[in-house]
Amino acid sequence: MTNKLKKLLVEKASSGTSPWCAYVYDLPALATHAQHMKQHLPQNCQLYYAAKANPDVRLLNTLAPHVDGFEAASAGELAHLNEQQFGKPLIFGGPGKTTEDLQQALNQHVACIHVESLTELKRLATLCANGSQTQTIMLRMNIALDGIAGSKLQMGGQATPFGLDPSDLGTALALIQESQHLEFDGFHFHSMSHQMSVENHLKLMERYFQINREWESQWHIRSKVLNVGGGIGVNYQCVDEQFNWEQFCSQLDELIKQHDLQTRQIRFECGRFVSAFCGHYVMEVIDLKQSHGQWFAIGKGGTHHFRTPAAQSHNHPVWVHRNGQAAVVHNSTANIVGQLCTPKDRLHHQLPVQELALGDYLVFTLAGAYAWNISHQNFLMHAPPQVVYLE
Ligand SMILES: Cc1ncc(COP(=O)(O)O)c(C=O)c1O
Fold this sequence. Notes:
Blueprint (H helix, E strand, L loop, with lengths): L2 H12 L6 E6 H14 L4 E6 L6 H7 L5 E4 L2 H10 L5 E3 L6 H9 L4 E4 L2 H14 L3 E6 L12 E2 L14 H10 L3 E7 L3 E2 L4 H22 L5 E3 L17 H14 L6 E6 L1 H4 L3 E13 L2 E6 L8 H5 L5 E4 L7 E9 L8 E11 L4 E4 L21 E5 L1
Parallel strand pairs: 1-18, 2-3, 2-11, 3-4, 4-5, 5-6, 6-8, 8-10, 10-11, 13-15
Antiparallel strand pairs: 1-12, 7-9, 12-13, 12-17, 14-17, 15-16
The site of pyridoxal-5'-phosphate has 15 residues, from β11 and α10.
């Protein structure tokens, strides 16, 4: 826990206000981390932020100076990003784009649209022709990943609704050629999230580079950009053993040279690995009870604020911040749960605790990505958490 966070918790506990629960975002830590990511990438690589991981305006503004642009995966995200006027390119992906979504993207003059199906491609070609507007596009491809280890969340390498099947590539390229208004920039690949292995991710990059070369020679095209997606994982179990970004970047540099891709742009659109580390979700212990021999600590809040542990089916890393009351639980374990009337509202199963009392704070780390924004916030109509920004 950082000193700034500790100070905030001490201040909050001594303020005597009613039970507290909050997201706490460390903005300088986010800026430093994004800078670090960008600085280690090979020269011809770009870092975009996938806003779906956390579209909080203060986070986006903190990231803006350090990233090359932002990726939106819905018309809503696109409008939200556009409102901020970052002066950075916006790119638009995601399956199931309607005619209205595509028209909005055209009106906003997005830098690139990632086309995910032949239907989308036809819709876009028609809109562009009707409006005499040119649009840069990339084709998102779902390629075979034989021999490459998968992760726990795969969008590609198997039957999924994402991207184009390689068997549709010829038709897609013919449609682009027929259209006077679509500019092909290259291929987009986002095959998996939760990647924990540098070696496997490099193999994935290599597969993308190889297939791009094959397609360039087969179809007589040239990709200016390769969007290699996001997908770098966060280790929620061993928090000190995270994906080695520096090592990945230095080996990627070699790989780019081996494949003679120095003159192309390699674009990353990372979400989780960018914003997860800067966020904490804090719940105050409001009840402690025993049930059939097990302790339960009920925190203010729950999975309706912080669905990450339920979504990942994991025990989320958490610290206990003691607030000075006499401990009720000693050298035992406690299930950390929230205020919802469902047994699924559990954030940590049998957490070992030395001491725990009413009024203590449970501080969940790695809560800056796919947390508040993926939660079922209206279930039971509890009040939302506070949001505090450490500056
Ligand atoms: C197309 C696309 N790009 C980028 C991302 C961001 O992935 P991550 O947060 O794992 O980096 C996702 C996540 O679902 C995605 O679907």
